[in-house]
Design goal:
Radius of gyration: 21 Å
Bound molecules: iron/sulfur cluster
Structural class: alpha/beta
Distance between the termini: 40 Å
Length: about 425
């Protein structure tokens, strides 16, 4: 390498073995499952290209400036890692796993460190820093209103277990945390809220702003420790990934917080008879696996167990192999920089649901629900949140979105590009 800054040199050194492993195998199966490639058909947006660029950078054939924008085109879904034979076969023997998501995150961070910023992401992160929560669209986001969704629920602050409420849920889809709170209360699960909840930091990290993400993580961990928290319940897969991957990286052995995803806990509550689902929910439904749950963290059974426990609901499952490629397109900051692609990927997802002749698509990811809902409207399929269905089946009632917090407005991922 010639005439590159030390940070770029270190980056290439760190990723060269992964890059050559991908570049030399040449099978490119990953392109068939990549949701972004599925709509752009642009080779520059492929997991293969993301690795080949590192080889080309080492050879001095391309620069960081040449390729940085290409890395916008990734939802960090993890499908390519799951599909890659280098993970499936060589991984067993050599303990080698393809790590495209980490590579994309590292390249984005390198770009930010070198002053190469994407305009939508910069505005998004700047605004997150200003208000301490993500700038969820269509509603005013202010730190002092972060727990307004819980009005009237009589929830304590702190305690051994707390519920972390994602920014989209806290400010826009407030019906979700209210449903979750009622489910936990009805099941006898003691829990509280944070003294001062900030964004988990995951989106900033995904967009390449590592220092900002670390600052948010430090604040949240300090808040948990100051109020005696030992266990965090996450209701959004993006938060769950941040807490179980990013925070572990930041804090190492000092990170002693148990993190539980809500579907795992609710499935257990139903199994143990602590939560009774007795009210029929008349729907023919399929399930949208959030990428960060099934492909990133291996959680795919508990949502299905819950769906099968809802009386009146006919559950039609997706194909177990092709579902690797299913994605809403809302993750990894794609909806901020390329809302057109998010809309197209959501459209593909709803086409697959329509092929199962369902009237309902159930998701366990609040960030997926706006773009999926928009695509669902066009196809006559309602998009519902799994926890809201559970609350309905348990006879706990479901508030209209916005109850207890901000009034919910329309909008979609396509609207997420901040003006
Ligand atoms: S993580 Fe997902 S979106 Fe990103 S390159 Fe891999 S398959 Fe494509």
């Amino acid at each position: 390498m010639t005439d590159v800054d030390p940070a770029t040199e270190t980056f290439v050194e760190q990723w060269r073995d992964h890059a050559y492993s991908c570049f030399s195998s040449g099978h490119k199966f990953c392109r068939n499952v990549c949701p972004v490639m599925g709509v752009t058909q642009d080779e520059n947006h492929s997991p293969t290209a993301f690795h080949a660029n590192v080889v080309a950078m080492e050879q001095g054939l391309v620069s960081l400036e040449d390729v940085a924008r290409d890395y916008v085109h990734c939802t960090q879904c993890g499908a390519c890692e799951t599909r890659c034979p280098n993970t499936l076969m060589a991984g067993d023997f050599y303990r080698h796993r393809t790590r495209t998501v980490d590579l994309v995150k590292a390249m984005r961070a390198l770009a930010v460190d070198n002053g190469i910023e994407q305009p939508g992401w910069k505005r998004w992160v700047d605004e997150t820093v200003r208000v301490r929560s993500e700038p969820v669209l269509d509603v005013p986001v202010e730190q002092e209103r972060v727990a307004e969704w819980a009005d009237g629920l009589d929830l304590p602050i702190g305690g051994e277990t707390i519920l972390f409420v994602d920014c989209e849920a806290a400010f826009h889809r407030t019906s979700l945390p209210r449903a979750v709170a009622r489910i936990l209360q009805a099941s006898g699960v003691a829990f509280g809220l944070m003294r001062e909840q900030w964004c988990c930091g995951g989106p900033s990290r995904e967009m390449g702003y590592v220092d900002t993400a670390r600052e948010f993580a430090r604040h949240n961990l300090a808040d948990w420790r100051d109020s005696g928290v030992r266990r965090v319940i996450a209701l959004d897969p993006h938060d769950y990934v941040a807490f179980t991957e990013d925070y572990v990286e930041y804090f190492g052995d000092d990170y002693d917080i148990e993190v539980v995803f809500i579907t795992e806990l609710v499935a257990e509550l139903i199994r143990d008879g602590r939560l009774q689902l007795t009210n029929p929910v008349e729907a023919v439904a399929t399930y949208h696996d959030p990428c960060r749950l099934n492909k990133r963290r291996g959680i795919f059974e508990s949502p299905r167990e819950i769906l099968r426990a809802i009386p009146g609901l006919e559950f039609r499952d997706v194909d177990h192999v092709t579902q690797w490629s299913y994605c809403s397109g809302a993750g990894g900051g794609l909806a901020v920089e390329r809302p057109d692609l998010t809309a197209a990927i959501s459209g593909q997802r709803l086409d697959r649901a329509a092929a199962l002749e369902v009237d309902t698509l159930v998701s366990a990811c609040v960030w997926s629900e706006r773009p999926l809902s928009r695509a669902g409207t066009d196809r006559g399929i309602e998009v519902r949140d799994l926890m809201e269905l559970v609350a309905e089946a348990a006879g706990l009632g479901v508030d209209p979105p916005g109850t207890g917090g901000q009034p919910a407005a329309g909008g979609s991922a396509a609207d997420r590009r901040m003006a």
